[in-house]
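Figure-free illustration: sequence to structure, shown twice.
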Amino acid sequence: MTITSGMGKARAALARPFHRDGTPTRLHPTSLWAEVDKVAGLYAAPVWAAVRGRLGRLALPVVGTFSALGATVLGAAVLLWIVGAAYGWQEAKVAALMATLLLVLAVAFILGTTRYAVTLDLARTRVAVGDNAVGSISVANASPRAILPAALELPVGQATALFHLPRMKPADVHEDLFTIPTARRAVITVGPVRSVRADPLRLLRRQLVWTDPTLLYVHPRTTALDGPAAGFLKDLEGLPTTELSSADVSFHALRDYVPGDDRRHIHWKTTARTGKLMVRQFEETRRAHLAVALSVNTEEYVHDDDLELAISAAASLGRAAIKEYRELSVVTQRGPIRCETGKNLLDDMTRLAGHARRGTAVDLARSLSDSVPNASVVFLVVGSKVTPAQLRSAAAAVPPGVRAFAIRCHAGAEPARAGIADLTVLTLGDLADLPVLLRKAIA
């Protein structure tokens, strides 16, 4: 078998004067050029890709220095030069010369090297909503000569803060403090710090990046479950079950002694009265495994503030469970939330975003029962649009013997407590009401 290269195939096609039936061939010019382009592409494509990549790396920094006004002036200069040369218009040539001079002067402003030692420092990378995040930028002149005044830019999320640097002698240090408002829960990218050199007309603009970006986590607001809610989780910890045990903390009844029973559980007063050995029997208690199902379906909430209230309530429950070293599981329609530490919990809560048509509260309760089968206490944190019928269906999805609560979040609503079958329904209108509401829920 003979393998013919692309060039060989083209040559064979061009050199073949007759068809197989003996009739002469007629090469159409379009077909000829198509064959040539195909063969050239086999050899030129890798070379062109390398050339294009190198040109792109060289051209992008140059093109990136032009502002919108600078690009307009450059285009006008080229157009005026062409029109002036083609039609002999002296006015066009003069205007083109002026535009060219402006660009040349602008280049002189952005040329040169600058050596800074820049440090971006955030006092805290994790704050709660409403707490100001404070940071500082420290700039040192690392060059052996004085540096002219310049400007530094600090991107903060979608905004950009501008800092002006004075004239700095060698080894001089300039420091600026800044405050980032935290009105909403978010993950904010702070930085990188970049210096900007530009001409007075802002035709050209040169940027140099000096630091890496830093993530600022604005955690949801939480409330401590102390004061009126003190002991809430402890009250839920020892939930009795229907299973009997020979040793536990919840006394159930007395029964006859059988060989193998622990003699420490013999009830001697009853034994003396009846004349036969009697031992204590206990109900097994179960260590509280708190499971929180947080609905992020925006169709179940009247307003965005209601969803934020729900996230804050779920985060408060989770932090209290972690503080008391209780087992904790938190799930949403988007999946489970990390609960190893309070930092992981709040970081994941910060990244949560609402989503319409993501599954109802009933679907979430069923998913929770499947993913956390050993839960002893379940909290369903939902919006005010969830109907009593849906709450009843959600309660039916909770396994028997598991204590279930539902927290309906509606900003501004009066705190209330109601019951739907075995489900205790709490209405929460303000995060500050959560400790008192929880204490009343188990009263």
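We now fold a second protein in the same way, so the two outputs can be compared directly.
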Amino acid sequence: MAENYPLVEQREYRRPEKRVGWLNKRSVRDEDELPLIAAHQVRVFRVGEEYVEDPGHLRPDDPLVTGASSVTVVDRRVEVPVVVETRIPSAEAGDFTVRTTFYCTVTDACAVVRDGVTDIEALLLGHLREVPGLTEDGSDLPIVDSDAVRERIDARLTAYHEMRPAPLSGLRARHGLVEVLTPAELAEDIAKLQEERRQRERDRIRQEWEQESALKRSWLETELELKREELRNTSALRKERNRQEEELEKEYGRQKHETLLSRFRRESGAEDQRHELAQRAERNRFNRDQLREDVRLIGADPILADFNAWRQGDISADELSRRLHADDERRAELTDRRRRAELEEELTRRGFDRDEVRWQVEQDDRRKELERQAAREEEAARQREESRRWDLKHQDRVQARHEAREDAHQLHRDRHELNQQGLAAWTQLSKQAFERGLFDGQLSDPGAHINRIQDISYDGDRPAAERGTAREVPGAAHRSIPQGEPAGFDEDDADLDLGGTDSEANLGH
């Protein structure tokens, strides 16, 4: 069986929608719209009424390709075997099966596409059955003489084919091998073909299963790789987040450490100065106590000691006067030193107090600034949340108004349709009543009745506020229309309909 020969593939084209180019736009087809061809195949494009053969040189933007309405792939192989089978009667109960092989070659691909040569086996079988005398070659021989029948048919087909070749458009068919099979051989051959077909089907199913398994395996591997990539990305993001948090913690610790170190240095400096001043004061106190002890030992007064030494003659008056002046100067110097020390201590203490106050003020200002910034951020977040809630409420109100408007329109349309149906029913009833002559003695003015129908139609479409002022129909019964009844329908109409039915029944009798 020659599958897909000589036409391998056929495609119909629509007008190309894709356009390329900036200044000069032109139509172009997609690459997948051009069927792929093998080395022994060609494309045949139909452009209007013409057929153009292409060995694969035309591009998607070629005018022939963009203007083509269809494309066909034609097999140009040489001497393609095509097997044709037919039966001829024998001298016995069974039939001979004649299997003939034709070797076909495409000579004109455009002619093959133009004439639509799709089922070449059917054409060759028709040509084989047209051979005169073919069916009588085995009618006088038994089933066992299949070789003699084959020689007769081979000679007849060879002679006939030389005189009248197979009439195939664009194809050249050469007569080849002829086989004549008995019913047993045919059954065996058919069984073999069926087994081969089943084997091919099993191979095809196995290949499809293998392809499906490979596709599933590839899909699972791809999904696994995507999950791995997602895990890697998540791990990288987590590591980056941890690194940033560690850097923030390190920066916070460094700043806190610098703050504590600065405070410790200030406190340590103040403590050192206080300790130094305390040591100096202790030293001065010790010196004073020592001097006081000396004075106490010498009389608690060095002047007296000098006077005592002068009276004793140990020193002269000039020496005593010089010592007195030296003592006064020493006392004045001690007083000055003490005052300077107290002044320096006071200035140092005041400097420490100013630094402490300045540091405290800076800390308070920084804390207040952070509090103000946090309050501003909280207020901004609250305002954004209120704005979002207001937008949601506004959208809900707009949606509710839109739905209410749609419901009102739908209710108005339903009422209008109900009124129209009631009007149609009323009109039909009135028409039947007029046709039956039921209003001959009851209705004095048919025009008024028609006007009432118009009023009912108009009253059904008007708003409820205007219906109260609708024109009343003379002689019409006044009653309210119950909910669910069509407009224009009343009990009189029901009576009229029943009366009409009775009249028709009487007429039938």
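Summary for the second example: The chain has ten helices and nine strands.
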